[in-house]
Amino acid sequence: MDPETRVFRNGAIAIEHDTIKAIGHSDQILAEFSSHEQLIDLRGQLILPGFINTHVHTSQQLGRGIADDVDLLTWLHRRIWPYESNMTEEDSFISTLLCGIELIHSGVTCFAEAGGQHVAGMARAVEVLGLRACLAESIMDSGDGLPANWAGRTTEQCIQSQKELYKKYHNTADGRIRIWLGIRQIMNATEFLLAQTRDTAKELQTGIHMHVAEIPYENQHVANTRGVDQGTVAYLEKIEFLDDNLLAAHTVWVNQDEVCSLSKARVKVSHCPAAAMRMLGFAPIREMLDAGVCVSLGTDGAPSNNRMSIVDEMYLASLINKGREVFSKGITDPTALPAETILRMATINGAKSVLWDKEIGSLEVGKKADMIVVNPSFWSMVPLHDCISSLVYCMRSENIQSVMCNGQWIMKDHKILTLDESEVISMAKRAAAELMKRAGIDIPSRMNIL
Ligand SMILES: [Zn+2]
C-alpha cells in the first residue's frame, strides 16, 4: 500500500516501540537487525497494514438485530432513536467494547465513529481495547420527531460540547484517540450549525463526519427547503461546507455533477456496501473512483448491517459494484473494482479518509506499527493461487490470526489480549436486555414460536 505498491515475498519488518524501523526482504532485515530483542517467525503468513473502518456506530452494537426487515421510518423512529436516546454512558462503554472485539477479529486497527451520545464511554473503551479511533458525538440542532431529551439542544450547546470533548480526549490514549466533529445528517442540522461546524473544524484542525445523501427523500427535502436545485451535496457546496476534512458517509444519491464537486473539494467518502444494499441503494462508487474521489470502506452500525466485519465489506464492495454496472452499462462488468482497488480502499484510502495517512494505512518506514497477520492455510483460503485477490474474495475474519496496533499486539493467535472477551459478552447481554426494557422497544415475534 505504499506509493509503489510493493509486496515483499519472504519479507520482514523491524519494529521499535510503536514505529516501523525497516521493511524489506528478510535476509537483509535480519542482517541489519542482528541484535534484535525479539524475533517473531511468521513464515507462511501474510502481513498487511491494519484495516480502517471509516464508518461505524460503536454505540449501536447492543442494538444488533433490533431493526431487521423493517421500513426506514420504523427503523429510525421506533427502534434506533428510542434505543440511542435511552443509552447511558456505561451502555456506550460496553457497546464499544463489544463492537471493538468484532472489529479486532476482522483485522481493524483504526475506525471512525459515526457519532454517538456518550463519547466519554467510547473513549474509555478505546483506551482499553488498544485500537486507534476518530470519535465523534452525534450532533443535531433541529428536526422533526426527535426524542424529548435530544430536541432542546441549541447550536451553541452542540459546538460547545464538542469543543470540550476535544479538549478532554483529543490525542489521548498514547495518541490513539482523536476527536472529530459530527453532523448526524442534513435534516437535523441548521445552516448555522453547519457553518459553525465547518469553522470549528478549521480552528481545531480536525475532521467532520456526516451522513450524506442517504435516501432520495433527503435530497427532495433539501431541494424544497434550502434553495438548491439538486440535493445535499449541491447544497453543501453552495454553503462552502465541502472540504478535504469532510468524511461523507454513504453518499448514495449523487449525480455526476455532485461526484465532480466531491472530487474537486477532495471530500472523502465512506462506502458501506452492506448497509447501502439493505437500506439505501447503490452508490456510484466506480464513478467516484474514476473521478479521483478517495473512497474507503465502512460497516455502518450493527442495526443496519449486523456484521461488523470489514472483511465481509471488502467482499461485498467488489461484488455489488460489479453487479451495479448492469444499471449503467446494460451488462455486468467483472473487471470493475478489482481486488487491489478494494484492498486500497480498506487501508490507505481509509487512512486518508480519517486524515491519518502520514502515520497509518501502509507498512512504510516511519509509520506506526498498525498491522495484521493473515493465516492463508485455513480452509477458506486454500489453495492460494492469487494471493492479492484471495485476500478480497476468499478471506474470512477467521483468517485474521493476529493484530497489532501502535506497536502493541492487541490480538495474538485469535485471542484478544487487551480484555476478557467472555466477560464483555456477559456484560453486553445484560446491558442490552436492560436497555431494551428501558427504551420500551418490542420486537414483534416472527413465525410460530412455541
Ligand atoms: Zn451511519
Explain this structure to me?
- It holds the Pfam family Amidohydro_1.
- This is Amidohydrolase-related domain-containing protein.
- GO terms for molecular function: hydrolase activity.
- Keywords: Hydrolase.
- This protein has 450 residues and is α/β, with parallel strands linked by helices.
- It has a domain at 11-48 and 373-415.
- 41% of the residues lie in helices and 17% in strands.
- The chain has 19 helices and 16 strands.
- The chain has helices spanning 26-32, 72-85, 89-105, 119-129, 148-151, 155-169, 191-204, 216-225, 232-238, 256-264, 273-280, 285-290, 302-305, 310-323, 325-329, 339-346, 348-353, 387-393, 421-439, and strands at 11-16, 19-25, 46-49, 51-56, 108-113, 132-135, 177-179, 181-185, 208-212, 246-250, 268-271, 294-297, 371-374, 400-405, 408-412, 415-416.
- β1 (11-16) and β2 (19-25) form a beta hairpin.
- α3 (89-105) packs across α19, α6 (155-169) runs parallel beside α7 and α14 packs across α16 (339-346).
- The model has no long low-confidence stretch (mean pLDDT 96).
- Bound molecules: zinc ion (ZN).
- Zinc ion (ZN) is lined by residues 55, 57, 114, 211, 249, 300-301.
